[in-house]
Write a structure and sequence with these properties.
The complex is a heterodimer of chains A (about 120) and B (about 110).
Chain A (H helix, E strand, L loop, with lengths): L4 E3 L2 E4 L5 E6 L6 E8 L3 E9 L2 E4 L8 E7 L2 E6 L8 E8 L9 E2 L3 E5 L1
Parallel strand pairs in A: 2-11
Antiparallel strand pairs in A: 1-3, 3-8, 4-5, 4-9, 5-6, 7-8, 9-10, 9-11
Chain B lengths: L3 E3 L4 E4 L4 E7 L6 E7 L6 E7 L2 E5 L2 E6 L4 E6 L8 E8 L9 E2 L3 E6 L1
Parallel strand pairs in B: 2-11
Antiparallel strand pairs in B: 1-3, 3-8, 4-5, 4-9, 6-7, 7-8, 9-10, 9-11
The chains are: A mainly beta (about 120), B mainly beta (about 110).
Chain lengths: ~120, ~110
């Protein structure tokens, strides 16, 4: 079975540029999560969706960050304009929520470097 | 105080040893507890998923939850070099998939052949 698919795996760009990270959740899952991992802060939740609707975006650090989920099989996380402190590994996870909640399954992340 | 505390290690043990990893937490609303394993440059992989207090065993892995002490543990028996990775504890108030997870910072484990 295909797991959570993220693209690109690596992104290097200059400060001020727009960055778009993409995620395809596991087919049939109805919840999607974006996390950021840094050495200093570990894994932190940015935002999550249920049935394509944003439920909690309190972890989004600034207005420069935005996320969308136009359909059940695709989500994007956008940073505009990007800054060096945004450098981190960004993970997407998905789960099935309903009768008997299931745990989250993670993709392999996008390693983002802002120069 | 961070919501979830986890010793970052590194923890180095010889092959075959029993490994004990643990986390403490402060939020009494946490009901679901998970352990993830993360290899270098890969995403976290779910190892154990437990609800409330008690023990759960799966092969060489045993997870323990003590809600009264706000303390969770993961034991690895007969440790193998392939177990070398970072182990992350995670927890949530509702089902592990229904809301965001709060993670410890991870313990880096090294199994020496």
């Amino acid at each position: 079975d295909a797991g959570v698919i993220q693209s690109p795996r690596h992104e290097v760009t200059e400060m001020g540029q727009e960055v778009t990270l993409r995620c395809k959740p596991i087919s049939g899952h109805n919840s999607l999560f974006w996390y950021r991992q840094t050495m200093m802060r570990g894994l932190e939740l940015l935002i999550y969706f249920n049935n394509n609707v944003p439920i909690d975006d309190s972890g989004m650090p600034e207005d420069r960050f935005s996320a969308k989920m136009p359909n059940a099989s695709f989500s994007t996380l956008k940073i505009q304009p990007s800054e060096p402190r945004d450098s981190a590994v960004y993970f997407c996870a998905s789960s099935l929520v309903g009768t008997g909640n299931q745990p989250q399954h993670f993709g392999d992340g996008t390693r983002l470097s802002i120069l | 105080q961070k919501e979830v505390e986890q010793d970052p290690g590194p923890l180095s043990v010889p092959e075959g040893a029993i490994v004990s990893l643990n986390c403490t937490y402060s939020n009494s609303a946490f009901q679901y507890f998970m352990w993830y394993r993360q290899y270098s440059r890969k995403g976290p992989e779910l190892l154990m998923y437990t609800y409330s207090s008690g023990n759960k065993e799966d092969g060489r892995f045993t997870a323990q939850v003590d809600k009264s002490s706000k303390y969770i543990s993961l034991f690895i028996r007969d440790s193998q070099p392939s177990d070398s990775a970072t182990y992350l504890c995670a927890m949530s108030g509702s089902g592990g998939g229904a809301d965001g997870l709060t993670f410890g910072k991870g313990t880096h484990l090294i199994i020496q052949p």
